[in-house]
Design brief:
Order of helices and strands: EEEEEEHHHHHHHHHHHEEHHEEHHHHH
Number of domains: 4
Number of helices: 18
CATH superfamily of the largest domain: Intergrase catalytic core
CATH architecture of the largest domain: Orthogonal Bundle
Helix content: 40-55%
CATH class of the largest domain: Mainly Alpha
CATH topology of the largest domain: hpI Integrase, Chain A
Radius of gyration: 30 Å
Shape: elongated
Length: about 425
């Protein structure tokens, strides 16, 4: 246990680099290359550098090895005293790269400052385009959600009369109490609270990467973010046809929203991939291939007649509409469709309690329902799951099945139809006609 050293032979076979092996209790063993010049292999023996007459430089290196061992031992003990837990590999590597001794390192870490202004500055950088998301500007809806996190953190701190500092967030209770605040005080639905927690976890990772926090509390304390199955719907064939046939000539706004949603219903792409699907050259093709932004996987998308009709309508230049405007417009469109006015019972967790509610189906209509609709449509057509996964770009059956498990109603209707046919075949015609 503790610190030891070894030498790793270089390609020349004559020299080697010195590595430190860190193996403290509570820390997964790891090795780290020391920023020291390579030494001749003959100058290393039994885990230590040879010293003596004519080896003055080796004596200097020996002093550095002793000093490093002392630094690491002090850091290991001081970290436990400061954080009441063991350091991780990342904690130790950051300390090594700081070039500070343990007392200086922890004294610097004791500087207390408010994190909310720092998070706000990161959001502003993203708004201004100085920080990109995989090479692209952050979407307005995403940044709006991030700003929503800040407002909830401010409300949480005001409620408990505390500050969100670089030290307070390192305690597990900061995260767990924030979760309780969202669920119990603000009575958020479980998935709404989980979305805030995911966002907070992501910003903690940014603060760690920027050297502002020593670790991410979610990872350090293995804090899980609970979720429940989302209440989602898929349009059936009749509803799809009814939406396609809506006369929206007097409402260009809803007409564009309807067309963009139908493209998602017949392609299965996420809103983030719609631009790629629309922009790709489709002339003379029956199938197009795009790369899914979320997973990096290929999606092989058939060009159904309904998609081709929309592309022709706009001469392959389909107008882009923001997520929020699409979702708002879909609620208006849903009211015009008979099946989407039917009320269904939904179940959700609010404030830690399971609740049920009867709501019209159109209230659950969002752009992501387009992806679910295509998958459910293809399942109902009897297509093989693995073939559909090529279109949807799902890699695992488990994640794919979350899109089709809501199709229970269709399965039960099929049972009733089979039962009706069986009874009809068994009874005289005059009796069967009365059923």
């Amino acid at each position: 246990m503790g610190v030891s050293y070894y030498i790793r032979k270089s390609s020349d076979g004559k020299t080697g680099s010195i590595y430190v092996s860190v193996n403290y209790y509570g820390v997964d063993r790891f090795t780290y290359a020391l920023p020291i010049d390579k030494i001749p292999l003959k100058d290393w023996e039994d885990g230590w550098i040879k010293t003596g007459k004519g080896k003055q430089w080796n004596s200097t290196i020996e002093g550095e090895l002793y000093a490093l061992k002392t630094r690491l031992n002090q850091f290991y003990l001081e970290f436990q005293k400061e954080h009441k837990t063991y350091p991780t590999k990342d904690d130790i590597v950051k300390f090594l790269e700081s070039k500070l001794d343990a007392s200086e390192y922890f004294e610097k870490k004791k500087e207390v400052f408010d994190l909310i202004p720092i998070i706000e500055s990161i959001i502003q950088r993203r708004i201004d385009g100085y920080e990109l998301n995989d090479g692209e500007m952050y979407r307005t809806g995403t940044l709006k959600n991030h700003a929503g996190l800040v407002s909830r953190l401010e409300a949480y701190c005001n409620h408990l009369k505390i500050k969100m500092t670089n030290l307070s967030v390192l305690e597990k209770k900061f995260v767990t109490n924030f979760q309780q605040f969202l669920l119990k005080v603000e009575q958020k639905k479980l998935n709404s609270a989980s979305a805030r927690l995911k966002c907070l976890k992501a910003y903690f990772s940014v603060l760690v990467a920027d050297g502002i926090l020593p670790f991410n509390p979610f990872e350090k304390y293995n804090i899980t973010i609970p979720e429940e199955p989302a209440n989602n719907i898929a349009l059936d064939e009749e509803e799809l046809k009814e939406m396609e046939d809506l006369d929206l000539s007097n409402n260009p706004r809803l007409d564009r929203i309807r067309d963009q949603f139908l493209l998602m219903c017949w392609s299965g792409v996420r809103i983030s991939d719609l631009t790629s699907f629309c922009d790709i050259d489709k002339d003379g093709l029956e199938v197009v291939v795009i790369v899914n932004k979320k997973t990096g996987n290929e999606a092989v998308i058939p060009l159904f007649p309904q998609s081709k009709k929309i592309f022709e309508k706009y001469n392959n230049d389909v107008p882009r509409i923001s997520d929020q405007k699409i979702n708002d417009g879909l609620k208006e469109l849903g009211k015009m469709i008979k099946g989407l006015n039917r009320k269904i019972q939904i179940k959700y967790n609010r404030g830690g309690e399971i609740k049920t509610e009867m709501v019209p189906r159109y209230t659950m209509l969002t752009n992501h329902c387009g992806r679910r609709t295509l998958i459910t449509t293809l399942v109902n057509l009897g297509c093989d799951y693995k073939d559909i996964m090529v279109v949807s770009s799902h890699v695992t059956l488990k994640s794919f099945e979350t899109y089709i498990k809501k199709n229970k109603e269709g399965a039960v209707k099929s049972m009733l139809k089979q039962y009706q046919q069986r009874i009809t075949n068994q009874l005289p015609n005059s009796t069967a006609n009365t059923l």
